[in-house]
Amino acid sequence: MKILVLNCGSSSLKYQMMDMETKSAMAKGLVERIGLPGAMLTHRPKGGEKEVIIADLPDHTAAIKLVLQAVIDPNFGVLTSLEEIDAVGHRVLHGGEKVSGSVLVNAEVKQAIEECFELGPLHNPANLAGIIACEQMMSGTPQVAVFDTAFHQTMPPEAYIYGIPYELYEKYKIRRYGFHGTSHKYVSQRAAVVMGKPLEKLKLISCHLGNGSSLTAVKYGKSVENSMGFTPLEGLMMGTRSGDLDPAIVPFIMKKERISGDAVNALLNKKSGVLGLSGVSSDFRDLQKAADEGNYRAQLALDVFVHDVKKYIGAYAAILDGVDGIIFTAGLGENSPLIRRSICDTLGCIGVSIDDEKNEAAVGQEVDISKWGARCKVMVIPTNEELMIALDTEEIIQKM
């Protein structure tokens, strides 16, 4: 089976053409600046040279049309015709409370995606546009929606309800939804393989650490807590997001700076986090370089981030009533031995003890970095959301 995986952002589109026999990408690419001047597609066929195509792409329909042309191009494509595509798997940000798993796209599913526009204003409209574009250009090819929030729909009410009047939850569905679900689901499944134990018998903490970061408590294969909330702003301090914040700070800033609520929202999402705290960068590599050179604020940003992760790990260990394994994934989690060591150095109380040599060598590869005999395993597991989307899509298509 061959599955096209699409991840439509507000002005971008990532894609992979997956061969499910080998569970690998035949080609992958990125479309940038959709709806803006200078739009371009970068296409990378497996084992081939990178191809860059400059084009006028006013919307996602035009972008997907260009992707499909690239996939079957006689010079650098990987298929002879679009009929070879058995299904399309779409990453969709928000499914609200209506969607608790990956689903075959139909009118009801599209309506559910549209109803969550207000909850995911940057992504859900683009996700739906991608689905509609594929319907127009690939009539008859089944499509599956894989929701970023779906994995967290197993959280119990005590984990997702906020301490606000219950009527506001009933009226507006203001609650904690959690995000990065596809990534957390994939790495928790891989952790069970690495540990050689059934997922249904494990208590895991998954740390998705990157420019956007979140932690998930996974109990016996199900999400019971995620650090992100009603939006991805809650939780850890991130690249440009503030993370957890006293809500009274919002009206305080509005009054003192004489700015609107929308302006504060933009400040907390785009100008805060390690960028705002350090004044250097949202890229942790830049922060580490600056900290090594004696920059106090850069070091402070790193220290706050590490503190936040430790705090959540401790809380989740209590909620899980013990931890069998901790997973580090995503750009920072997979590639920064220093951050992993800094986080783990005071977690001996829950059985964590990492091997420094294994940790230093573990860059972008799937490996157990624990010392022999450690009660709580610590693993580095590269995330693969595209493969998880393809696997969910394959499972649904096979049941049709």
UniProtKB/TrEMBL annotation:
Checking InterPro entries in the record gives: Ac/propionate_kinase, Aliphatic_acid_kin_short-chain, Aliphatic_acid_kinase_CS, ATPase_NBD
Q: In which pathway does it act?
A: Metabolic intermediate biosynthesis; acetyl-CoA biosynthesis; acetyl-CoA from acetate: step 1/2
E.C. numbers: 2.7.2.1
Amino-acid positions noted as binding substrate in the UniProt annotation, renumbered to this chain: 91
Q: Which residues form the active site?
A: 148 (proton donor/acceptor)
In the record's cofactor note, how is the cofactor described as bound?
Mg(2+). Can also accept Mn(2+).
The reply on keyword Repeat is no
Q: Show the CDD domains listed in the entry.
A: ASKHA_NBD_AcK_PK
**Which cofactor(s) does the record list?**
Mg(2+); Mn(2+)
Q: Where is this site: Transition state stabilizer?
A: 180, 241
Entry-linked PROSITE patterns: ACETATE_KINASE_1 (PS01075), ACETATE_KINASE_2 (PS01076)
Q: Which reaction does it catalyse?
A: acetate + ATP = acetyl phosphate + ADP
PANTHER family, per this entry? ACETATE KINASE, ACETATE KINASE-RELATED
Identification of the protein by name: Acetate kinase
Please tell me the species this chain comes from: Dehalobacter restrictus (strain DSM 9455 / PER-K23)
What lineage, starting at the top, does this entry show? Bacteria, Bacillati, Bacillota, Clostridia, Eubacteriales
